[in-house]
């Protein structure tokens, strides 16, 4: 059973069959999955959705799979909660965190896209999966490939955080560390993908893979009692997540699951890698690639493939874009931890750091509902903050040492 | 002047399934004109109606993105390697 009609070129609208294709033969535009919304509308009602298990597959009619998914069966439906303490700190009235730092199985939103990609790769009959990754995609692909018994090749830039390397190697894939930045890894992989017939989740499986991100938006709406928030701040690397969040909202509107489409979407990037933010601010039609230099390695894509769509998402929705410096990223990671008890990775620091600025400068009004997309886990990027969070107090195992060294010295 | 050009899958029908071809030109613009002579129809696929490179195509000279060099004016010399690659997602 499936509601997918086929693939369609996002640029020239030529149609293609449901196959592992990713680029239009005529104009090189990316291909996108096309659904039969008329039929979906008759089935996918609120009443139907709330009966289903609490994971991303409760919206399966809007995902490009033809068979039962084989991985990621517990992925998604992560917490969305009101952030009361952070509201106070930022001086806003209604703020929510959508928390994919606890997504299953590998603690980032990438579990959503990989669940779709690997299920699709199995349907297509591939025995090998691969990806080019800034870290989170590596963790998720390696994990889910192990479960689904795929042979697995992972390509990363050689300077990745230790936890992201360990969190990949534990699943025993073939891990290739390329001497270069992510954009170089990606370029190499696209040449490898032409030569070796593997399911590259972010290359030839990309049209299917990217659809998984829509569930992030569906859940936000459902968890807000079927209301879309007024503002959503989204971290951007390749620009796929932000584009699909907007697509997800538009689909829910089309299906009558929300009655208004008035959410503004904001793009968040690190100052050391902000090609999307630059294009928004310069009102440019093209994306000028940059050479990334930031602690937010998960977002360090200087040549974002979906950059133009990320920019049009911001424009169409009436949002804006901003970047955060490395220092602001660290401060924001600490602020989220110390107000809400959530330890996010650098990408989450970018989201909050940027949200803070946008609120302060009046781009986001203080009295309307705001959702921050927290997409990854702090334990994976400890290098970024370990020297900036103080250290423990060492004592002897007796009470006088405790009082001498701790009680007398603490000031809170 | 011979320059090695790697052709992406969608264009390999035009190059008779060849992944790597040779072409000439002092810069990218001339290279595209020369490719067009050898493989008629290829220019239309690489460039839009106004003759500008389509926005979802990335061209690399010796592994460097031409947008960091001089775009279509990027100069070429004997032995250079050019890759034509569609934009791809990542993360
Ligand atoms: C934690 C995290 N958040 C956000 C993103 C951005 O996603 P996209 O590349 O779809 O813009 C990434 C991408 O790698 C990521 O790892
Ligand atoms: Zn097209």
Secondary structure elements and pairings:
The complex is a heterodimer of chains A (412) and B (91).
Chain A: E1 4-9, E2 15-16, E3 31-35, H1 37-43, H2 46-50, E4 80-82, H3 84-90, E5 95-99, H4 110-124, E6 128-132, H5 136-148, E7 151-157, H6 162-169, E8 174-178, H7 182-195, E9 199-200, H8 206-211, H9 214-223, E10 231-235, H10 240-254, E11 264-270, H11 275-281, H12 307-317, E12 321-324, H13 326-340, H14 346-360, E13 370-374, H15 399-407
Chain B: E1 3-6, E2 20-23, H1 28-38, H2 42-46, E3 57-61, E4 64-65, E5 81-86
Parallel strand pairs in B: 1-5
Antiparallel strand pairs in B: 1-2, 3-4, 3-5
Zinc ion binds at residues 9, 11-12, 14, 24, 26-27, 29 of chain A.
Concise overview:
The complex is a heterodimer of chains A (412) and B (91). With 412 residues, chain A is of the alpha/beta class.
Q: What would your notes on this structure say?
A:
The complex is a heterodimer of chains A (about 400) and B (about 90). Chain A contains 15 helices and 13 strands. Chain A is α/β, with parallel strands linked by helices. The longest helix of chain A is centred in the first third of the chain and has 15 residues, at about 110-125. Chain A starts with a strand and ends in a 5-residue tail after the last helix. The mean pLDDT of chain A is about 95. Chain B has helices at about 30-40, 40-45, and strands at about 5, 20-25, 55-60, 65, 80-85. In chain B, strand 3 and strand 4 (about 65) form a beta hairpin. Chain B is globular. Classes of the chains: A alpha/beta (about 400), B alpha+beta (about 90). The interface between A and B is medium-sized, with 45 and 24 residues. Pyridoxal-5'-phosphate (PLP) binds near residues 109, 134, 240 and 347 of chain A.
């Amino acid at each position: 059973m499936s509601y997918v009609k086929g693939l369609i070129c996002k640029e020239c609208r030529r149609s293609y069959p449901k196959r592992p294709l990713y680029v239009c033969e005529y104009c090189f535009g990316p291909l996108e999955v096309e659904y039969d919304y008329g039929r979906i509308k008759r089935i996918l009602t609120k009443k139907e959705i709330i009966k289903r298990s609490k994971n991303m597959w409760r919206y399966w009619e809007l995902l490009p799979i033809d068979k039962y998914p084989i991985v990621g069966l517990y992925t998604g439906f992560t917490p969305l909660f009101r952030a009361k303490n952070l509201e106070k700190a930022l001086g806003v009235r209604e703020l929510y965190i959508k928390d994919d730092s606890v997504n299953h199985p590998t603690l980032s939103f990438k579990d959503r896209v990989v669940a779709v990609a690997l299920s699709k790769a199995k349907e297509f009959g591939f025995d090998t999966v691969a990806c080019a990754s800034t870290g989170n995609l590596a963790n998720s692909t390696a994990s889910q490939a192990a479960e689904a018994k795929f042979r697995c090749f992972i390509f990363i830039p050689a300077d990745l955080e230790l936890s992201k390397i360990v969190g990949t190697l534990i699943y025993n894939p073939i891990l290739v560390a390329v001497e270069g930045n992510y954009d170089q890894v990606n370029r190499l992989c696209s040449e490898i993908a032409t030569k070796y017939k593997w399911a590259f989740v972010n290359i030839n499986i990309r049209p299917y893979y990217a659809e998984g991100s829509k569930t992030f938006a569906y859940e936000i709406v459902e968890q807000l009692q079927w209301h879309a928030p007024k503002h959503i701040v989204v971290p951007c690397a390749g620009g796929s997540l932000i584009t699909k969040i907007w697509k997800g909202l538009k689909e829910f509107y089309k299906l009558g699951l929300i009655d208004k489409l008035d959410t503004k979407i904001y793009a968040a990037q690190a100052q050391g890698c902000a090609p999307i933010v630059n294009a928004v601010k310069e009102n440019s039609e093209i994306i000028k690639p940059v050479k990334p230099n930031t602690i937010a390695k998960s977002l360090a894509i200087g040549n974002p493939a979906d950059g133009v769509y990320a920019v049009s998402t911001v424009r169409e929705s009436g949002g804006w874009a901003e970047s955060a410096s490395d220092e602001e990223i660290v401060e924001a990671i600490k602020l989220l931890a110390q107000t809400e008890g959530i330890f996010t990775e650098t990408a989450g620091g970018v989201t909050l750091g940027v949200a803070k600025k946008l609120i302060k400068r009046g781009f986001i009004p203080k009295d309307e509902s705001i959702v921050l997309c927290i997409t990854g886990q702090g334990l994976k990027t400890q290098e970024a903050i370990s020297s900036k969070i103080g250290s423990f107090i060492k004592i002897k195992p007796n009470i006088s040492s405790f009082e001498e060294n701790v009680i007398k010295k603490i000031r809170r | 002047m011979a320059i090695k050009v790697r052709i992406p899958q969608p264009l390999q029908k035009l190059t008779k399934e060849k992944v790597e071809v040779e072409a000439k030109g002092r810069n990218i613009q001339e290279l595209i004109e020369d490719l067009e002579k050898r493989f008629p129809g290829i220019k239309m696929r690489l460039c839009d109606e106004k003759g500008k490179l389509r926005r979802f195509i990335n061209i690399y000279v010796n592994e460097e993105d031409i947008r960091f060099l001089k775009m279509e004016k990027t100069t070429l010399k004997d032995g250079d390697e050019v890759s034509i690659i569609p934009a791809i997602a990542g993360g």
